[in-house]
Design a protein that fits this description.
The chain is mainly alpha-helical. Helix content is 50%, strand content 5%. It has four domains: 58 residues, no CATH class; 91 residues, no CATH class; 84 residues, Orthogonal Bundle (DNA polymerase, domain 1), CATH 1.10.150; 192 residues, hpI Integrase, Chain A, CATH 1.10.443.10. The strands form two sheets. A three-stranded antiparallel sheet has the order 1-2-3, with helices on one face. Helix 5 crosses helix 6 and helix 12 runs parallel beside helix 17.
C-alpha cells in the first residue's frame, strides 16, 4: 500500500497554498463533507509548510475529539473554562487598555446580542475553541451553559478594562472568582501503538495482504511496547526508536538487515498509516535509519546439483527412512521437495495444496496455486504445468488417492495465532527433515526456499524466457506490458518441458 503524506496544495491559478485533506470515512457524516480545504493565506512555500503543520495538528485534534464520547460539564468546570477568556482579555490589554468608550461599546453590543438571542453566532466559536484547547467534548446542554457563561465573563472583563482605561489599577475584584482549571475528565483517549497496528491490519487484510504478516508485525510491535514500558504512540520520539534499534543490534545481536527490514519496518509502517489517517501528528521514525552493510556472499542461495540430488534421493527412500513423524508429514517430505524442484514454488504454497487444485487442460496436467487454499504472497492465483517426470513418479496417482481437501494435513478447528496455519506447520516439518534427515546442514542455504533460487538457475541454463519463469513462479516484474495478454497453458508447458529430468535413484519409491 502506497501512503501519500499530506502536504500544502498550491492553487494552480492564484498560487495561494491550501490545507486540503480527505475526511476519514467514519467522520464524513459528522463533518458533512468528504474533504476539507482551507486557505493558508500565503504564496510562500516555507511559510505554507509551517502553517500546514499547525493546521494539521488542529484538524487532527478536532477529528480525534469527534470520535470521543461527549460528557456533561459541571458548573465549576464551566466557570473554570470561562476564566481562560477573562484572563486572556485582562492580560492582553493590561498595559494599553485603550479608551473607556471602546469597552463601554463592547458591553453595549454584548447586551444587545443577549437581548436578540444571537448566542451561537457571537459566542459559539469561542466556546468551541475553549473545549478544543482542553481536548474536551461535551453535550449540547453543557455547551449552551458554557456559551452563556462566556457572555457573563466578557461583561466582567470589559467592566474591569473600563476601570483600567480610566487609570484605576486597583486589585482586580474578579481575580479569584474563577476556580483553577483542572483536567476535564473527557480528554480524548491517547492513540496507542495497538490502535495504529489495528488501522494498518484492517487495510492490509481488506487489500488481500498476506494472512501471516499481521502476526509477524504484532510480535514486533509488542516487543517495542515492552521496550518502551508504555504504548502511547503520541509520546514516542525518534530517540526512542533509535535506541530500540541499537538495543536489538548490540544487546540481542540481531543483524542490521533483520532490524531494518523487520522490526523497524513494522514500526515505521504503522506510524505512517497513523499519520496518513490523521491519528497522530508526527512520525518518529521519519529520520531513523539502520545502515545495512553489503552482504557477504560465500555460496549460491540455491541448492547445488549435489545437494538437490541428495534431498530428492532421500525423499524417494523407504518411508521408514524419512524420520519419526506422522504419515501425512512423511508424504509431505516425499513430495514437497520434488514439486518445488520442478515448479520453483514457495514451499508453503505446496504444503497447502488441495486435491481440487489439480486438473488438466488440453491434455496437460497442472496444479493451481490459489489464495483459496491459503496464503499466496502476491494474492494472485496461477496455474503451473506438471513436469512429465512428476507424472512418472506417481504424483497424479498420489493426488487421486487423497480425499477432497488438503493433501498433507487433515483440517481441524483448533485455534491458532494468525499466520500459524497447518500448512505452515507442515512446511516447517519439511524444513526440519531437510536438515535432520537429508543432512543439508549448511546454514547459508535455506532448506525450502533454496528450491526457488535453484529453479531460476536451471531455467536460465535451458533458456526459459524471464516472463515465463515469473509466470510459473508467481513473480511480478512491475512492467505494464506484463499485464497484457495471457501466458497460456500450452506456452507454459512448452517451457516446463525444457527443464532437465533429475536423474535420481532410490532403493524404494514411496507414494
Amino acid at each position: 500500500m502506497v501512503l501519500h503524506m499530506p502536504r500544502p496544495f498550491k492553487h494552480p491559478k492564484t498560487g495561494v497554498y491550501y490545507f486540503r485533506m480527505r475526511v476519514p470515512v467514519d467522520l464524513v457524516g459528522a463533518i458533512g463533507k468528504r474533504e476539507i480545504k482551507i486557505s493558508l493565506g500565503t504564496k510562500e512555500p516555507a511559510a505554507a509548510k509551517e502553517l500546514f503543520s499547525a493546521k494539521e495538528q488542529q484538524v487532527t485534534k478536532h477529528w480525534r475529539l469527534l470520535r470521543t464520547k461527549p460528557e456533561p460539564l459541571s458548573q465549576k468546570q464551566i466557570v473554570a473554562l470561562s476564566g481562560k477568556v477573562y484572563r486572556k482579555i485582562i492580560e492582553k490589554f493590561d498595559d494599553e487598555p485603550g479608551s473607556p468608550q471602546l469597552w463601554r461599546n463592547i458591553i453595549s453590543l454584548a447586551e444587545r446580542v443577549a437581548a436578540d438571542g444571537n448566542w451561537e453566532q457571537w459566542y459559539g466559536p469561542s466556546a468551541d475553541e475553549l473545549l478544543l484547547s482542553e481536548d474536551t467534548v461535551t453535550d449540547h446542554e453543557s455547551r449552551e451553559r458554557l456559551i452563556q457563561q462566556v457572555h457573563q465573563t466578557l461583561l466582567l472583563a470589559a467592566a474591569q478594562q473600563v476601570k483600567k482605561a480610566e487609570g484605576d489599577y486597583s486589585p482586580d475584584p474578579n481575580a479569584n472568582r474563577f476556580p483553577p482549571l483542572k483536567p476535564m475528565g473527557t480528554k480524548a483517549k491517547a492513540v496507542t501503538l495497538t490502535d495504529l497496528f489495528k488501522l494498518w491490519e484492517r487495510d492490509h487484510l481488506a487489500d488481500n495482504g498476506a494472512q501471516g504478516t499481521p502476526a509477524d508485525f504484532l510480535q514486533k510491535i509488542e516487543d517495542f511496547k515492552k521496550h518502551l514500558g508504555h504504548e502511547n504512540a503520541e509520546t514516542v520520539t525518534g530517540l526512542n526508536v533509535s535506541e530500540y534499534c541499537d538495543m536489538l543490534r548490540h544487546d540481542r545481536g540481531l543483524s542490521a538487515n533483520t532490524v531494518n527490514g523487520k522490526y523497524l519496518a513494522a514500526i515505521r509502517i504503522i506510524f505512517r498509516v497513523g499519520l496518513a489517517k490523521s491519528r497522530i501528528k508526527a512520525d518518529p521514525t521519519a529520520n531513523i535509519k539502520v545502515s545495512v552493510p553489503k552482504a557477504i556472499k560465500e555460496r549460491p542461495k540455491s541448492f547445488t546439483d549435489a545437494e538437490a540430488k541428495v534431498i530428492l534421493a532421500c525423499a524417494l527412500g523407504d518411508p521408514s527412512s524419512l524420520g519419526q513423524m506422522s504419515e501425512l508429514n512423511k508424504l509431505a517430505c516425499r513430495w514437497v521437495p520434488w514439486i518445488c524442484a520442478y515448479t520453483g514454488a514457495r514451499a508453503g504454497e505446496i504444503t497447502q495444496l488441495r486435491r481440487e487444485d489439480f486438473s488438466e487442460e488440453y491434455g496437460i496436467p497442472f496444479l493451481k496455486i490459489t489464495p483459496e487454499a491459503g496464503s499466496v504472497k502476491t494474492g494472485q492465483y496461477r496455474m503451473v504445468p506438471i513436469h512429465p517426470h512428476l507424472v512418472e513418479l506417481g504424483l497424479i496417482e498420489f493426488v487421486q488417492s487423497r480425499p477432497q481437501g488438503p493433501l498433507f494435513y487433515i483440517p481441524n478447528d483448533r485455534k491458532r495465532k494468525p499466520g500459524h496455519t497447518q500448512a505452515a506447520s507442515v512446511r516447517g516439518k519439511v524444513s526440519d527433515w531437510v536438515r535432520d534427515v537429508a543432512k543439508i546442514t549448511d546454514r547459508r542455504v535455506q532448506p525450502n526456499h533454496a528450491w526457488r533460487h535453484r529453479f531460476k538457475t536451471v531455467a536460465r541454463d535451458v533458456d526459459i524466457a524471464p516472463r515465463y519463469m515469473d509466470a510459473i513462479q508467481g513473480h511480478e516484474d512491475g512492467s505494464a506490458s506484463s499485464d497484457y495478454g495471457e501466458n497460456t497453458m500450452k506456452a507454459l508447458y512448452r517451457e516446463i518441458l525444457k527443464l532437465p529430468k533429475y536423474d535420481v535413484k532410490a532403493k524404494m519409491r514411496a507414494h
